[in-house]
Specification:
By secondary structure, this protein is an alpha/beta fold. Helix content is 42%, strand content 16%. It is built from twelve helices and 13 strands. Helix 1 packs across helix 7, helix 2 (63-69) packs across helix 4 and helix 6 packs parallel to helix 8. It binds nicotinamide-adenine-dinucleotide (NAD) and thymidine-5'-diphosphate (TYD).
């Protein structure tokens, strides 16, 4: 099978490429990535020489390049996106361009190439927010109600993917997944930001009251869910994917990281809240469990500890990132430090 992965140089995409070539060594992967600030070929060092892997530096908005890349492809797994909520608040336009227009260009190219499956990787953030202290969870039937330019652009892309299935018969599947964590996550997202800040002797910036809740999933569990959907998922269907956590808020996540790194809570700094901040996410993953037999395997505490260890052992990976152009973003977002 020939798989075209978009955004394979980013966090989840790279973990997926590494996972797939281990699990399915007979398959061919072509990784299409524009290498924005979030794309890093260092993430894929161990497969660079693999004859079943190739890389194309291209923008998913480039129709000509996408049509060419799509030739002979059986399956598309579409990760490429602008993915950080705070950046979407600073500069929404590129989120619409990549996440909405880019997805539409890919859908056209996939139709033209007659691909057997277009799998779209989406987020639970399209559903909006849940109240604190409730047992409500998002499921495949939750109405869309996005609040940030990021989640609105992802919602737009989800609607387009379904529209291409209904209108043109494109064989699609979608996963809406909760917050991932693990190796190679860009240190703008809260878990790697907190870990690397503490290692550098800086504080962990916590937005607002810190009582915001995310549903955490170790990245390999997400890769396994996509694998199962590709193998056994029903064409046209959406599957919600989430973790094992029972409502852990950001303050608790920060405290766990500090404990693992042997630091006290004076390393927490409350900062200005994010506008439109979603209070709580939680996922009901019953459908993918009942229909495909998937459930998360990695518990939060153990894999948070392993993730901290990874960032401790791989400082070469993030130190370069944190001293480059990312520094300008950090200063704009959190003030001069
Ligand atoms: P990321 O920001 O780490 O990586 C995105 C990748 O896409 C980068 O390699 C970047 O270079 C590439 N890219 C961006 N614009 C592009 C363009 N125009 N053309 C080609 N490549 C482009 O993101 P991530 O966290 O790995 O997320 C991957 C996907 O999973 C996204 O679609 C995101 O919405 C979704 N998702 C993420 C999470 C999460 O917790 N990170 C959770 C659920 C869903
Ligand atoms: P983030 O990692 O940006 O993911 P998302 O917004 O897509 O869920 O943020 C996770 C949570 O952590 C969210 O509630 C916002 C909060 N947060 C902070 O408190 N401080 C920070 O510096 C960042 C980046 C996020």
């Amino acid at each position: 099978m020939k798989i075209l992965v978009t955004g394979g140089a980013g966090f989840i995409g790279a973990n997926f490429v590494l996972y797939w070539l281990k699990q399915h060594p007979e398959d061919f992967i072509i990784n299409v990535d524009k290498l924005t600030y979030a794309g890093n070929l260092e993430n894929l060092k161990e497969v660079q020489q693999n004859p079943n892997y190739s890389f194309l530096k291209a923008d998913i908005c480039n129709r000509e390049q996408m049509e060419k890349a799509m030739q002979g492809v059986d399956t598309v797994v579409h990760f490429a996106a602008e993915s950080h909520v705070d950046r979407s608040i600073m500069n929404p336009e590129e989120f619409v361009v990549t996440n909405v227009v880019g997805t539409q260009v890919l859908l056209d190219a996939a139709l033209k190439a007659n691909v057997k499956r277009f799998h779209h990787v989406s987020t639970d953030e399209v559903f909006g927010a849940l109240p604190l202290n409730s047992s409500e969870k998002f499921s495949e039937n939750t109405p869309y109600n996005p609040h940030s330019p990021y989640s609105a652009s992802k919602a737009g892309s989800d609607h387009l993917v379904r529209a291409y299935a209904d209108t043109y018969g494109l064989p699609i599947t979608i996963t809406n997944c909760s917050n991932n964590f693990g190796p190679y996550q860009f240190p703008e997202k809260i878990i790697p930001l907190a870990i690397t800040n503490v290692i550098e002797g800086k504080k962990i910036p916590i937005y607002g009251d810190g009582l915001y809740v995310r549903d955490w999933l170790y990245v390999e569990d997400h890769c396994r869910a996509i694998d199962l959907v590709l193998q056994k998922g029903k064409i046209g269907e959406t599957y919600c994917v989430g973790g094992l956590t029972e409502d852990i808020n950001n303050l608790e996540v920060a405290k766990k990281i500090l404990k693992i790194l042997g630091k006290d809570e004076s390393s927490i700094e409350f900062v200005k809240d994010r506008p439109g901040h979603d209070r709580r996410y939680a996922i009901n993953w019953t459908k993918i469990k009942t229909e495909l037999g998937w459930q998360p395997q990695y518990d939060f505490d153990t894999w948070l500890e392993k993730t901290v260890a990874w960032y401790k052992e791989n400082q070469w990976w993030w130190k370069d990132i944190k001293s480059g152009t990312y520094k300008e973003y950090y200063e704009k977002q959190y003030g001069q430090k």
